[in-house]
Design a protein that fits this description.
Length: 101
């Protein structure tokens, strides 16, 4: 199966992707191709922009892990808005993506 993952360099992505690679082809959409290559070996295909794809028909599944981290700040009304917006619009430059650790 071919899987596209957004936000794959974060905490969950770093745990999930190695498990998926045993049976699937994985492409990771990230603002930083360097982070993708730093986190994973060459079996993961990095993708910097959705615009680089003609369509999503080549993928069997899309997993959205992109978005503002939820544990590092108090959940004020403003922060709740940032969290929601960062997950509903992952192609925009809202929210943060965790670095590899």
């Amino acid at each position: 199966m071919k899987i596209l993952i957004t936000g794959g360099t974060g905490l969950i992505g770093q745990a999930l992707i190695p498990r998926l690679l045993t049976e699937h082809q994985v492409t990771v959409l990230s603002r930083s191709v360097a982070k993708v290559t730093q986190c994973f070996d060459e079996s993961v295909t990095p993708l910097e922009r959705l615009d680089d794809l003609a369509h999503l028909n080549d993928f069997d599944a899309v997993i959205n892990l992109a978005g503002e981290p939820i544990a590092d700040k108090r959940w004020s009304e403003q922060q709740k808005g940032i969290i929601c917006t960062s997950r509903w619009g992952p192609d925009r430059k809202t929210g943060g993506e965790n670095s590899c650790q």
